[in-house]
Amino acid sequence: MKKNILFLCTGNSCRSQMAEGWGKALKGNKYNFYSAGTKKHGLNPYAVAVMKEAGVDISNHESKTTDEIKEKMDIVITVCSDANENCPYFPGGKIIHIGFDDPPRLTKDLSDEEEILKIYRRVRDEIKEVIINLEERI
Questions:
Q1: Among the options 87, 95, 96, 117, which is catalytic?
Q2: Cα Rg of the chain (Å, integer)
């Protein structure tokens, strides 16, 4: 039986969505991947775009809160410090924190589209590396 792994972020719009996408693409045969937020912020269009560039389509993902996750989680990976500090209780779930920079926060004052995408790509690639080496963390 495959373990259920949840990526948890604040708004479930960017980092947790990218992590779910990479998880399904790279290790979906080993684990069931989900993502959620402590709040719902909607899907970030830059996250969708940079994942599509890498060959992973997350455009059909939906932003959701932990209340909408009905499956029992074996592992919860918080991808931001806010989610780590405010992580709801998951009975029997192991909680691991792997923090990533927040692209929307880092790009909020930028107007150059290429500079914005560069930051999203960097975080996307960092998340991919974690998924590739996931067994070392869990």
A1: 87
A2: 14
Max distance between CA atoms of the chain, in angstroms, equals 47
Collapse the DSSP code of 56 into the 3-class scheme (helix H, G, I; strand E, B; otherwise coil) and give the result.
coil
Based on the residue annotation, tell me whether 9 is a catalytic residue of this protein: yes
Going by pLDDT thresholds of 50, 70 and 90, the confidence category of residue 85 is low
Residue 15 in 3-state DSSP? Answer: helix
In one letter, which amino acid is 36? A
Active site residue 80: yes
Handedness of CA 102, 64, 131, 14 (dihedral sign): negative
Is 14 tagged catalytic?
no
The structure's pTM equals 0.93
Structure tokens at 136: 């070392």
> Looking at the predicted structure, is the pLDDT value of residue 91 above 80?
no
User: Active-site residue among 18, 80, 127, 130?
Assistant: 80
Which of 5, 8, 9, 73 is labelled catalytic?
Answer: 9
